Amino acid sequence: MAGSAPVVGIACDRRMIGDHAYHLAGEKYIDAVRDGVGAIPFLIPVLNPPLTTAELLEHFDGLLFTGSSSNVAPHHYGGHPPRERTLLDEARDAVTLPLMRAAETAAVPMLSICRGFQEMNVAFGGTLHQHLQEVEGYADHSVGDRKRSLEKQYGPVHDVRVAHGGVLERLLPGVDSFQVNSLHSQGIDRLAPPLRVEASAPDGAIEAVSMDRAKAFLFGVQWHPEWRHAENPISRAIFSAFGDAVRQYAKRRDGPHGG
Fold it and tell me: Using one digit for the tens of pLDDT, what is the confidence trace for 52-64?
């Protein structure tokens, strides 16, 4: 309906709780879509068989791909088998990877965070380090001994340096570097060919990406801007830019038949 708030789809995780499967999304992401993006959050179930990309894209003005405790299954990028007890979510993979590719083709705005950032790299042809802290030259980006406190988990851990000429530099004029939280053990190994680096950690780990050829807003970050997003000017800038793109897409979509 013309004039109504745009809708952003949030891909769920699939978890077994007892004997039953649940489709889950963290409230912090839902809040960030409602309050930071200014859109209606709508949770996308990761069913088997999955809903088709055409069915999904018909209803959304933007897509948010969240962080998760699960990893992208390594067979999607030719990686070695995961270690025992590694949490995977093949149901989510089956939805998000093709959905990202279809959304890029359809010019639907996308913002990807943590696992979503890694999914974005895999979806467009890149690979991942499954245990970044064990790769020579990289620091430990995982939660480590910070896990006992949310404040420590999501507190700033390291700097990221903004790459020149990209989306992030335009969003943050005059900002060369800033601090981010860090709660990941996986990281980008080979960058997907169509993606470009937007920011990097001091050890060279890629922390943000975009796509030069993208028809709409397409941006991914390894950190968690959704955590207390309203208190952080970097987070506010990212969600605001995503919101602008979502509203522009909604206006184009409603144009031929809207009020």
Answer: 999 999 999 999 9
